[in-house]
Amino acid sequence: MKERLEALRDEAIAKIKEANEIKAVQDVRVSYLGKKGPITEVLRGMGKLSAEERPIVGQIANEVREAITAELEKKLTALEEAEIERKLAEEQIDVSLPGRPVARGTRHPLTAVVEEVEDTFLGLGFTVAEGPEVETDYYNFEALNLPKDHPARDMQDSFYFTEELLLRTHTSPVQARTMEKFEGKGPVKVIVPGKVFRRDDDDATHSHQFMQIEGLYVDHNVRMSDLKGVLEAFAKSFFGVDRRIRLRPSFFPFTEPSVEVDVSCGMCGGKGCRVCKNTGWIEVLGAGMVHPRVLEMSGFDPKKYSGFAFGMGVERLAMLKYDIDDIRHFYTNDVRFLSQFKRV
Ligand code: PHE
Hints:
Blueprint: H1 2-18, H2 22-33, H3 38-44, H4 53-90, H5 109-123, E1 127-128, E2 134-136, H6 137-140, E3 165-167, H7 173-182, E4 188-197, E5 209-219, H8 224-239, E6 245-252, E7 255-264, E8 281-290, H9 292-297, E9 306-313, H10 314-322, H11 329-332, H12 335-338
Parallel strand pairs: 1-4
Antiparallel strand pairs: 2-3, 4-5, 5-9, 6-7, 7-8, 8-9
The structure holds phenylalanine.
Phenylalanine (PHE) is lined by residues 170, 172, 214, 252, 255, 286-288, 309-311.
C-alpha cells in the first residue's frame, strides 16, 4: 500500500510539473485528491488493515496528500505570477513616447474683441457692468426718453414677449439701471458689453442678434471734450495709433447733443477708397451727452451732474479690424473661420 501511495504521489507531482495552465493544475487536484480519486480509494481500503498497520498507512497517506497539495500550491502561485508578469509586459506604457496633441479651441473673435475693449476702458478707469437681455419696456425705452408714442421707437423693431417685456434692442437700458444703483451720487463710469436683438432680416451686414458695448460716464462737469478724448484714445488703441476720429451731428432721444463717430479709414489712410466708399471715414459708433431728462429719471440732478454715453457694435468693430466681410460668419461657427483667431 505504501508503494502504491508513493507511486501515486510521484505520478501526481510529475503531472503538476508538466501542467502549464491553471486549469490543468486544478484538474490534477480533482483527479488525485478528489472524492473519486485513487488516494481516497486507497484510504477507503484501510478498514481491511490491521491495527498496527493502520496508523502507519494513515500517516503515509497524509504525507502524500500534503506533498501533492504543496506541489499544487507552488505550481499555482508560479502560474499566477507568470500571468501577472505577462499582463504587465503586455500593458506596459512607454512613457518616452511623445504625447498625442489635444485639439484646443480658440477664443471666439467677438469674445476677443469684447475683452480687448474692456482692457482699454479698464485702463481709463471704467468698470464693467451688465444687465438683463430680457428687458422691460421701461428700461429699454421709457427711461431713455422714448415715451410710448415716440416716433423714434420705430428705429428699432423689437422682439416683444408681452407689452411690457422684450428682448433688449440695445445695451443703453443698462445706463438707467446703473445710474439707479448709484442713487444720485457720481462718479458713474462703466462699460457694458452684451447681446442685443432686433427684428432684422439676416444678411451680410445685419443679424437679428448681435453685440454692443455701452459706455457711460456721469460726474460733475463732464464735457463733450471728455467724450472725444476717451473715444480717440479708444480708437487709437483698438485700430492703431495713426487713426483719427471725427464727430458728426446725429440724433438719439437719450443724448443731447448726439453724434456719430467716424474713424479714419485704415485701408487708404483717409484718402478715400472702396472700403470707406471714397469718404476717408468709417462710422463706428453712436454717442452723445446724456440727456438731462435721462439723468433725472434715473435719480441724478442734471444741475449738478452731466455725462456722456456711447454705444458701439462689437461685430462691426471686429469686421473692420479683421477685414471680415459677412456678419453671419460670427454665428455659423465654421471651425475654418474660428480657428484663424488663435492669437487674438
Ligand atoms: N443705443 C444706441 C444704438 O443702439 C447707441 C448709443 C448709445 C447712442 C449711447 C448714444 C449713446 O444705436
